[in-house]
């Protein structure tokens, strides 16, 4: 299903749908107005029929457009799955499972299926496409398995052994198992053991920055700030701009030099404008270093990235008020522009 939704994004379906509505809305309104004129002129039923027909044609056009989008997203998603090394047969299999779920519920589909109906033609189309695709051999890079290990540990914090059992089910690389063992050791407050294991693993896989970055993160969480900073800076010397290391360094600077942290995080927010964690740290750094306006602005960005668009808009209103009282009309103008963007976000979300 993730591949299907990525297909919608890659093909700009929401934007194209809005464009289609704009294309058909005026002709539809003109046709309905003509029907009203006919009805007002004594045409009676003929005018009403014209109005109803115009509205029905508009709705049918939107439904047909939506069905084409669903089919296109399925096909693009299947290609993406095959290119990523996943079995494309999983998509038609999932659709059949969803169809069975619908029948078991007495014909009342889950809410998701109201906008993504599963029909026999859709299953046949995806099955036919999947049969034509050959799966690209999965990469031997252990990065995916290691990231999955982190996610499994997060989901099974109360029972780390369950995370290990789930990871082993997919026959991961041995390095991923060692990586998870180190993370579990850190969760159990065995920091030295965790760092030693990760250091050994980093020597075996020197090109994988994820491993030393995880070690720096563990050192930071254990309160060893100087060790964490040294490790993060070592990574940045070898891999300048590596985001996880930049984030760790910023977090440490926040405690020791808020002004420098503010400068670093402002630059980092331009590199990662969609990461709420960056703006959380930036808001705190701004508050500690006397940049009040930036504190409110960063907080607003963090809120809208987290889905709290109404609170974000209110936060921008506070930021604008502070900017005007400080006679910083450049920032006030910038904030007004962001507020207009937020309002457009909210309007678009309400139309979905």
Summarize the structure.
Helices cover 80% and strands 0% of the residues. With 352 residues, the chain is mostly helical.
Notes on the protein architecture:
- The protein has about 350 residues and is an all-alpha fold.
- Among the domains are: about 1-130, no CATH class; about 255-350, Alpha Horseshoe (Serine Threonine Protein Phosphatase 5, Tetratricopeptide repeat), CATH 1.25.40.
- Helix content is about 80%, strand content about 0%.
- It has helices spanning about 1-10, 15-45, 45-85, 90-105, 110-115, 120-130, 145-155, 160-170, 175-185, 190-205, 210-220, 225-240, 245-255, 260-270, 275-290, 290-305, 310-325, 330-350.
- Helix 15 (about 275-290) runs antiparallel to helix 16.
- The longest helix is centred in the N-terminal third of the chain and has 39 residues, at about 45-85.
- It is flat, with a radius of gyration of 27 Å.
- The protein starts with a helix and ends with a helix.
- The relative contact order is 0.04.
- The model is unreliable at about 60-65 (pLDDT under 50).
Task: Write out key terms for the chains shown.
352 residues, mainly alpha, Serine Threonine Protein Phosphatase 5, Tetratricopeptide repeat, 80% helix, flat
Please render the helix and strand layout as text.
Blueprint: H1 2-10, H2 13-43, H3 45-83, H4 90-104, H5 111-115, H6 120-132, H7 143-155, H8 160-168, H9 174-187, H10 191-204, H11 210-221, H12 225-238, H13 243-256, H14 258-271, H15 276-288, H16 292-305, H17 309-325, H18 329-351
Helix pairs in contact: 1-3, 2-3, 3-6, 4-6, 7-8, 7-9, 8-9, 9-10, 10-11, 11-12, 11-13, 12-13, 13-14, 13-15, 14-15, 15-16, 16-17, 17-18
